[in-house]
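#struct-pred

JT: dropping the chains for the assembly here, can someone run the whole complex?
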Amino acid sequence: MASPPQSLTTLLARLAASGTDFLLVGALAAVAQGAPLTTLDVDVVHRRGADNVGRLIEFLASVDARYRGRQAGSVLRPTRDALLGDGHHLLATSLGPLDVLGAIEGGRGYDDLLPDSVTIEVEGQRVRVIRLRTLADLKRGATSAKDRLVLAILEETIRRTGGR
Amino acid sequence: MGDETLIDMLLALSPEERLRLNDRMARTIEELRHGFAAAEPHHAARPPGGERD
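RK: done, full complex below.
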């Protein structure tokens, strides 16, 4: 069965257009800043205030978000209470996979990471993206072969951008 | 191509252009997965994604 057409770019832009405060993290953040990687999902850290989670829930409903990896016919959708916590929500949406993360390595949440972000424009929307250098710092403690490979790519990209 | 690298080529694009390039690559990977699964059904057991990419 073929997958429906998906666009992580449009998913990101629509999330930004919803007014939800979030930071793009993970491999797509590196891609946006020039790292030669390919990723199949969007990773974001959202601000966990009640008002912001309300906007996020509304957006997630608009893209038919439900948890990935469940048996066919078993649909579980994210709740407001769950999104107020610091857990990870690995979701499928009508525009592609979306990982909504309350906090990442070291328990760092939106407010902790915001100073280490830059702004890019996507489909006319402003999107805050975690800096390459911070992404590399987050990978430095990882031990998997994949993470070590990604770290080497991030470091080379940082070097070629003059150390941004 | 001289000493021009893939990173240099990507850095010459806008962030949105880089994201759209990723979209195209991701679609190609998905097409390959579907094609491979159709040809080799016993390899099609990968779930639709229960872990972070």
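JT: nice. The interface with chain B takes residues 2-3, 5-9, 12, 26-28, 31-41, 43, 68-70, 88, 90, 92, 96-97, 99, 120-123, 129, 156-157, 160-161 of chain A (CB under 8 Å). Chain A has a mean pLDDT of 94.
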